[in-house]
Write a structure and sequence with these properties.
Strands 1, 2, 8, 9, 10, 11, 17 and 18 form an 8-stranded mixed β-sheet that branches. Helix content is 34%, strand content 25%. The protein has helices at 13-24, 51-57, 99-112, 242-250, 301-321, 326-329, 331-354, 359-367, 373-382, 391-399, 403-424, 433-445; strands at residues 2-9, 29-32, 48-50, 67-71, 73-77, 84-88, 94-97, 116-118, 121-129, 132-140, 146-156, 183-192, 202-206, 216-221, 226-234, 260-270, 279-280, 283-285. β14 (216-221) and β15 (226-234) form a beta hairpin. The chain has 12 helices and 18 strands. The longest helix has 24 residues, at 331-354. It has 3 domains: 2-60 and 99-177 and 272-340, 3-Layer(bba) Sandwich (FAD/NAD(P)-binding domain); 180-270, D-Amino Acid Oxidase, Chain A, domain 2 (2-Layer Sandwich), CATH 3.30.9; 346-445, no CATH class. The chain is an alpha/beta fold.
Amino acid sequence: MVNLDLVVVGAGTAGCMAARTAAKAGLSVCLIDYKDAKSIGDKVCGDAIGKHHFDNLGLSYPRGEELERIIMGIKVYSPDMETVFKLSSEELHGFIVNRWVFGQRLLREALDAGASLLDLTQALEPIVEGGFVRGVIARDRRTGSRVEIRGRVTVDASGYAAVLRRRLPPEMEIETSINKRDEVLCYREIRILKSEVDEPEFCQIYLDLEAAPGGYYWIFPKRDNCVNVGLGVAAVGGFPNPREQLYKFVLSKRIFEDSRLIHGGGGVVPTRRPLDSFVGNGIVVIGDAACHVNPIHGGGIGPSMMAGKIAGEVISSVLEKSEPSVENLWPINVRYMKTYGAKQASLDVFRIFLQSLTNEDINYGMKYKLIMEEDVLKAGMEGDVRLNITDATRRIFIGLGRISFLRKLYNMARKSKAIKKMYENYPQSPNEMQEWRIKVREIFGSG
């Protein structure tokens, strides 16, 4: 049996950042991961991360083998390919990383800060005693033996699997399950093309509900002629197989003729607002396990690391002077919601709206710039959805018989603004949570 200040399940971006932060503050920290140490960081991912996340977290920029490409912006294509929003600003500058090398860097920094690692170790369930999580029961994958790893605080950073969150008792008041309609199934491949893509400093996102219902497909340039190409579909109804869709609609394009497959794989991404709360007595949930993912583009590296840093700082402060009760850990919720969760929730309204549209709706919306390119950028960075609907635009849409589409757009913008305000005024203590939840559900449920 091992006794520690902090047990972190999952050595991904969120877990490593939490471990690094807490260990730097002097806590005894152990990272647990299912994989062997040399495989940590090897994950199916879009591989993109904004420069601002490195600035905000105080991390050095990727370089050497870790850096695949410097990105200056994003190009978003309409379903009919007739309209392209070219989004470029300092806020969109970022990097395409080698996901394995980047993951290994984060792990090394956590270990250098003083954290220890138990690799090839499978977390099975939380240890719950006296209303507190006191650690985890795990299995050593080398020997098959079970071990108790106890900690004053336990962090579930186990990704979509959420191995601890799904097994928490109801009295923790943390959501244990996620609705399937809030998940996107993705498949992506790393391919070498015959020649480099045009404007390789731009990531390409394609909106096409026939190819990617409820999602999109992407082409992200990597080093030289290499690209990360993938497709995501919403897990709603009889959704299609994303791999089959990628081959049918994307890899059949001329650009992929005679291309060579390097690696392929899939996964599930929780694309929704964050959990209402991700703290309980002795437990904190972060990263994909807490739905810390941008609902529009599915990027999770940046917000996961942000959540890890916040968690590490608050846990360190709490353990220095008091017990890790839900009340004392609550600032993790408050800080995350104010810095990223409000934006996430606002964009979740936008996501639900987009999933209700047709390709024709999207074509018209982009053609007539109902949301301007600069406003798309602002929405992506801050969660503020602003409309560009003039009297002339109204007349055009009335003539097209699409006035109901404008009403839906107005309603989405209204709900997006209201929900962002609710998250910016997130409860300062768990005592205020029930009333807040009711108001949030009312906004999401309104017509």
